[in-house]
Design brief:
Elements: E1 3-7, H1 16-26, E2 33-37, H2 39-50, H3 55-68, H4 76-84, H5 94-104, E3 117-123, E4 128-132, H6 137-144, E5 154-156, E6 159-162, H7 172-177, E7 182-186, H8 201-222, E8 229-232, H9 255-273
Parallel strand pairs: 1-2, 1-7, 2-3, 7-8
Antiparallel strand pairs: 3-4, 3-6, 5-6
């Protein structure tokens, strides 16, 4: 079997993927390739960079640092100015860049990681997904996690990119293209909650985005080739499309609870497979 870990996007809820990884390692399941989107690319790059050493410990410490700090260190004054002057983003990406540089080091190349790794971003100029398989790691991760409105687009070689979740939120189809025969999808809980018609104006926009996000993933699941083993790990934290916690993107105070809940749910799921 060729095993792929596919890590989906989801901002601060990406902490659940740490709990899922812990359950996978305790079940002695390890990846031959790692594929990620947005915060899933962030987490996945750490998994791919540690091989079988201790990615759980490394990710746990990283998320503790994130929970104790703020990757959006834009001052209130600067945020107000950005809004007042109609800038394309509320925050700068510099603090997030510093975090990633501290994790991987400046100048680290994707092809230098110990496990094959890829991440996806959304090309503005081409209105298409762009996969990063070689080249500088940190710019690729920033491109994959450049959430529109919150963060500015990332320029790489004259092309501009937004968050990969816009085009492929949980990219299981990419894993199949790369020859995976066993796929473990690590996701943040959105697709575990049923959708309903909107009741308020703002819900219509959220629902539209969620339909687009789920359609790509659902199509990939329906078209799984014969012989491909697929596992969708439970998050222990189902997220409704209109969940008000989404407005608190800087609040990472529940990181420990998210990790623990995902670990328990995924450990039970994996135990039932044996």
């Amino acid at each position: 079997m060729t095993t792929a870990f596919v890590l989906g996007g989801g901002g601060r809820w990406g902490a659940v993927e740490v709990g899922m990884l812990q359950a996978l390692r305790e079940a002695d399941i390890h990846p031959d390739m790692v594929i990620g989107t947005s915060i899933g690319a962030f987490n996945g790059s750490v998994i791919a960079d540690t091989d079988r050493a201790d990615p759980v410990g490394r990710l746990t410490e990283l998320w503790k640092d994130i929970a104790g700090g703020d990757v959006f260190k834009t001052s209130l004054k600067d945020r107000a100015r950005n809004l007042a002057t109609m800038q394309p983003a509320i925050h700068s990406a510099e603090s997030l860049r510093e975090t990633l540089d501290n994790v991987h080091g400046r100048g680290r190349q994707i092809e230098d990681l110990k496990i094959p790794f890829e991440c996806v971003a959304s090309s503005i100029e081409h209105a298409a997904e762009r996969w990063f398989t070689r080249g500088l790691l940190v710019p690729a991760l920033l491109a994959s996690s450049a959430i529109p409105v919150l963060l500015p687009p990332v320029e790489i070689n004259g092309e501009h990119f937004y968050d990969g979740g816009l085009v492929n939120s949980i990219p299981i189809d990419r894993a199949i293209e790369r020859g995976a025969t066993r796929i473990y999808a690590l996701q943040v809980g959105r697709i575990e909650s049923p959708l309903r018609p909107p009741k308020r104006l703002h819900e219509a926009a959220l629902l539209s985005l969620e339909i687009a996000r789920r359609h790509r993933f659902g199509t990939g699941v329906e078209r799984l080739p014969d012989g491909v083993e697929f596992h969708l790990l439970p998050s222990g934290n189902p997220v409704e499309f209109d969940d008000r916690r989404q407005l608190k993107w800087r609040d990472t105070g529940d990181t420990g609870r998210l990790v623990a809940g995902a670990y328990r749910a995924s450990a039970l799921y994996l135990a039932d497979l044996t």
